[in-house]
Structure prediction request, 232 residues.
Amino acid sequence: MKAISGILVGLMCLVITSCDSGAAAEKKWTVLFNGSDVSAWRGHNSDKFPAKGWFVQDGLLVFDPAKGSGGDIVTVNEYSDFELQLETRLSKGANTGIKYFVVESLSKGSAGLGLEYQLLDDANHPDAKAGKSGNRTFAALYDLIAPAPEKVVKPIGEWNTVRIVSKGKTVQHWLNGKKVVEYTRDDPAFREIVANSKYKNIPGFGLAEKGRILLQDHGNLVCFRNIKIRTF
Prediction:
């Protein structure tokens, strides 16, 4: 009986430890938008959240050009090794993006410069056919790497789940639970891609050790929700 009791206690400890580990992992997430609070964000090269364009409505973070142009918004904090997750819903014909490793001193005004997870209505925006081999379509590393052809994008008006994972110099783009892009920022092959892109004249583009996350004001209606990030 003692042996059985010992086994049962051991199993209980394993279950508790497992639950605790899961809870600890979940606690690593920092909420960047909870449906009401925008204190984790401010205008690019500004100390305030934009007074126009961006707003909270029905638990969503919304950019609507009909409300004015407030410029890009960035996280108050900078990140290096991170996992960002959010949901986004585009309007018909929309073109926007999520940038990361944004260093404000390298770009002027309210528009930021950084590596970009492209958000695009592939069916209705002409940028889907621009660039090279789909490198400006939804989930692409904008103007650099096209997403996997088997990517699954939900229709306009529905929510797509986006993840960006950065560890060391390796970055992954995920869309609706599937990895669609992976690259290493300092890999010679990737640097050659940069050298043949619109970023070719920007020294060290994409090599910052840390930077801010940016949501783009690109003049199209777009909504975000459930934005969270964790660091490694």
In short: The chain has a mean pLDDT of 90. Helices lie at 2-27, 188-195. The domain at 30-231 is CATH 2.60.120.560 (Jelly Rolls). The CA atoms of residues 86 and 226 lie 5 Å apart.
